């Protein structure tokens, strides 16, 4: 059981790590902000889902012909089995000794296993109580069906019993979770509250700028991979089609096409962000950031896009020496946030960073002239 518990935590955290950026994007597009508490609750949900799977499927027994022959009947249809066995256990061992028997612990664990179901479905998903109850019954039925069918036929034979008693205890646990959610203090913002604040401008923090940069890197990686694949497909089609074998010389040319396609696609992606709309990068748009160029010059936005992102992408393309320089420049761009949330790109291009949800929001660090803010009346 300890192994299953630790594996559930590991799997849940890995799923959270893999889905962190998609969850971040979803939060910003849904509520206009990052909510760390909701992310923690979501991670708890992933851990819990992994625990449900782990305790339903594992541990696997040593399957053999004799073992499978003894497990042909995997369905227990006697609803009085548990009360009868409990009475027999108490009569045989006594009440105190019976409390430590696995029969009791099985009942308790089946209840406890579904308590988080009620809490998470009510507190995070905000489902109506009747919907949580129906979902709990459905989830328990799915577990029992999985055990009855031997993991839906993936196991050589059923190795656990499906028992209606488990259905009752699981549902009871979910009802306890619903009750606990009702009396527990609310430390998580409701969806209604978050949606009401979606269009409100928020402070430009370093973490928010860093989120935008991480998203830009992720978007660029996707674009580079897709552009490289597109270029490789185009080259292969010009050399006789997918079934044609390529010579070593052609393979070298193909490699060049892939890198060139990835670079061109990335540069086009970077430039398009500067020429469309408010000129923010696509990562900045995701987190509602908007660069504001000095004197409203569009070329400054293009320079802002190229001076860091364009330079790094080009450095990666040109060779090993420039690859190192590109990585070094990326580190400088990240470290520059410690000095100012404007970042190195806006400092070099001459622009400020504001919240894109209002045209009246002041930049975080207004430029000063003669000791007075550039937003002062002249």
Helices and strands in order:
Elements: H1 2-18, H2 20-31, H3 36-57, H4 65-69, H5 81-93, H6 95-98, H7 102-123, H8 129-148, H9 164-183, H10 191-196, H11 206-238, H12 248-275, H13 282-286, E1 289-293, H14 298-318, H15 320-339, H16 343-349, E2 351-355, E3 368-369, E4 372-373
Antiparallel strand pairs: 1-2, 3-4
Helix pairs in contact: 1-3, 3-7, 7-8, 7-9, 8-9, 11-12, 12-14, 14-15, 14-16
Structure in words:
The chain has helices at 2-18, 20-31, 36-57, 65-69, 81-93, 95-98, 102-123, 129-148, 164-183, 191-196, 206-238, 248-275, 282-286, 298-318, 320-339, 343-349, and strands at 289-293, 351-355, 368-369, 372-373. The relative contact order is 0.08. It is built from 16 helices and 4 strands. By secondary structure, it is mainly alpha-helical. The model is unreliable at 360-378 (pLDDT under 50).
